[in-house]
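Proteins fold reproducibly. Look at a sample protein:
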Amino acid sequence: MSSTREPEREPVVTRAPGGTPVLTPVLTAKNVSIEYEVTPVVHAVKDVSLTLHRGEILGLAGESGCGKTTFAYGLNKLLKPPALMRSGEITFHDKNGEDIDVVGLDGERLRAFRWDKISMVFQGAMNSLNPVISVKAQLYDIFSTHRPGMSTKEKKAASEELLRTVGVDPARLGSYAHEFSGGMRQRVMIAMALALRPQVMIMDEPTTALDVVVQRGILREIMRLREQFDFAVVFITHDLPMLLEISDRIAVMRAGEIVELDSAENIYTNPQHEYTRKLLSSFPSLTGDRGAFVRTGEQSGEVA
C-alpha cells in the first residue's frame, strides 16, 4: 500500500488575514474498521484514517464494493446489522469548539446530531423521496423534528427558500415525487440535506442515473452551494475523472483500504499507487487515436 502524501495545494478556501490558508478539521476518522457479521465475515473497511477540513470537497473514489458507502455510513453512525464498527474513533469538531464523539452518540443525542451537524444525500437519492407525501410535508417534518419552535409560516418561508436555493420553483412545494424529473428530484434531496445548514454533507453517488447534461447542472449547483454556505463535502463515486474536476483532495479506496490520498492535481499528474494509475487509465480519451472494433460475424476494422 502506498504511503499517503500531504497535498501540495491547500484544500481549504478559508483564509486568515493576510491570505494564509487555514486548515481546520471538521471531521476526523481514526483507525476505523467495519465488518459485516455474516458467514464468512466480510471486512468491509480496514483501519481507515481520514481528516475532512472545513470548506473542502473530499472525493472518495473506488470500484463498486470497495467499502466507500459503508465507510460513509460509519461516519454518520448509520450502520445497521449485520454491519458493525469493530474499532476506531470518529470525532466531529463543531464550529463552537466542541468535539463530539460520533461513535458514542445514541438516542436523542444521535437524533439531534444527524442532519443538523452532518447530512447525507443517499445513493439512489432520486428514489429517496416518499412517493405519497408532498415535498412540503417532508421538509416540514425536518423542521418539526429539529426546530420544534418554528411556526408554520416560518416553515413555509424556509422551505420555499430552500427550493429557490437549489433552483426549484418554490411554487412546486406542494408537488409529489412523481411530478418531478430525475434532476429535479435530486435537487430536492439536496435541499433537504441543506435544510438545517449542516457543517458536513456526505454525498453518495449523487449523480448516478442522471444524463450528462443534468449531471453537470447538479455538480455546478453543489459547487455553488459549497461556496455560499461553506460546508465540507465528502463526495463518493467510482467516477474518478469527475472527482478530478470538483475535489480539493481525493482518497482512493480499494478493498476496504485507502491506498492513496492527495490533492486532485497530484492524483492526476503524479499518482503513486498502481491502482490509482489503473483507475485513471480506465477511462477512454476523447482526443486519442481511433481504435478498432469487432462486429459479430465481421472482421475488425477502424471506427468510422
User: Anything to note?
Assistant: The longest helix spans residues 212-229. The radius of gyration is 21 Å. Confidence is low (pLDDT under 50) at residues 1-20, 298-304.
